[in-house]
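Review form for a predicted model. The reviewer records the input and the model, then writes brief findings.
Reviewer: anonymous (R2)
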Amino acid sequence: MTDTREITMTVNGTERSIEVEPRRLLVHAIREDLDMTGTHIGCDTGNCGACTVLIDGEPIKSCLMFAAQADGSEVMTVEGMEELPESDGLHPLQEGFHEEHGLQCGYCTPGMLMSGKALLDENPDPSEEEIREAISGNLCRCTGYQNIVRSIEYAADKLAAQPAADGGTVAVDGDAGPAAAGSDADGPEPTGGDANAPESFEGYEVDDEFTCGAENCCGGPSTDAEHIGGDNV
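Model under review:
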């Protein structure tokens, strides 16, 4: 009779319990018992990194870890990236690999994405050297790595811009927000500003008619016109 034990892992935010043999590798448990085939098997010796997943936030080559060792752990596979708060259909890393052509055959891509995510979680603004170090345990036989590095840089930039894009402290649809604290419903009171600052230019008057002041725009003055309140344009 085969000796098995029950293990419980939280996989991509969902608690999963499975029966495994003590010798069963985590990569096989993920692919065959949990039916999550985004995690690839490349070498079975820990060299290629195609099977990389995150265990409690750390990138781990799942062909080098027994499933029983992950009992009680948080596991993230590539399938879980679309469910993250920063994802909008695609995670910024996945979008970066698409936009920057960071994959060709795609076999190494799930592992690259996991290593890239672990890096950006720890270091949101990595240098090129730090990116290359983070993916040094993942082999790619197609791209030459240049576009993979650009893909992770793309994701770092997009993730950095997300707080402002999501609203931040910017008032939207009449939401006053902290910037408008103390102002009345009609908007903030005008301030005196810098007393030495020049007055803002509001156009010229030519023949008693107001113009915007731009050359040949809505009747704007020509360079030969005599202007009231300004120099020739």
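Findings: The CA atoms of residues 100 and 151 lie 5 Å apart.
Further findings: The chain is about 25% helix and 15% strand.
Recommendation: see findings above.
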